[in-house]
Specification:
By secondary structure, the chain is mainly α. The chain has helices spanning 2-18, 21-49, 71-86, 96-104, 117-125, 131-163, 172-203, 221-227, 230-241, 251-269, 273-297, 302-321, 325-335, 351-363, 367-373, 377-400. Helix 12 (302-321) packs antiparallel against helix 13 (325-335).
Length: 412
Amino acid sequence: MLASILLNYMFAFLIDRHSGKLWLAIGVSCNLLFLIFFKYFNMLVQTANHFFAVESVLPEGLKNIALPIGISFYTFQIMSYIIDVYRKNVPVQKNILKLALYISLFPQLIAGPIVRYTDVVEQIDSRKTDAGKICEGISRFIVGLSKKVLISNTVAQTADLMFHTDSAALEFWGAWLGIICYTLQIYFDFSGYSDMAIGLGKMFGFDFLENFNYPYISKSIQEFWRRWHISLSSWFRDYLYIPLGGNRKGKTRTYLNNGIVFLLCGLWHGASWTFAFWGLYHGFFLILEKMFLGRYLEKVWTPFQHLYALLVVMAGWVFFRADTFCGAVQYLKAMAGMNGFGSVDPLHLSFYLFAVLLIAAVASAPVLPKIKERFHGWKRGTAEFLTLSVLFLLCSAFLAGNEYNPFIYFRF
């Protein structure tokens, strides 16, 4: 991270002074080389081992390279800075400590959202923090913590159990319970971290942009990516898709650009070919919608549009979660009933898990904000305070261990 800060500080000055593409290309290349080496070198070595015994000839220092925490996020952030300096969207930052603050600002460093320099440059120089903003930040942090601890961590246990079950023994109902749990797990995990980051940012006087907007109510894959991980999808749009030509160079080039963007989007999420396939999978459906599928979807009953988008997303999550491509295919076969239907083990679908799934399903849609709008005045403030206090105590109990978990006695 320190090397990235120093190098990009110098690159920004060179780009600003010479106003040429050469230093921009060198700067972007250096950032990508950092990312490729630390995040993808192990994957490339493992892939090459299938064809050549390359690992045996590698020095010890190049085996099992450790991944620096947050490198994907801060690399994309710093690239947006030098690109925006080149585009004259922002002035070059002359104070290296302020640039270091932007890159290393810890609330969103390891799990997002991706914060662009253009969005916080004024706040770095001048921001104010008052009691109201701190309270707002604490509230948002507790909501995010509750998403992660009370919902995501709970459904993750069942999702892990199902995805670790032998593929030949996994049956229809168990497979569907597992993917439903994982679908909710990854949303509440990721959006929970984003909420905590946004809340911490507010405590320090920063206003980060929203990163999720109820993606599971989408009616198409295009809409899903306008609602899911908004900071990443908008980054790829502005810094890759549009520079590649966007949709300005004909349909064939547009579809190719979409494929490139989603391939890299998949690889950004993880150093595995299953992530690459997941990205291409989403790109495939997005291209289909642009070609013809979108026109047909608009004509069908709205609930079917929601069902289509949700099923496509859930099938995609199988590849995102599975350890191998073959494992993902076997899991999809179980979801299709090819291993039999069986029944759900009562130990897997307990009363407690059912209640959490129900709460998660409601919280995945904009139901609570609409209810909140109907309450005003002192009662609303008191209710919020009591609710947040209870949530924080529950999160503390869950984090402390099962012996302090008040719900442990209701798992039946």
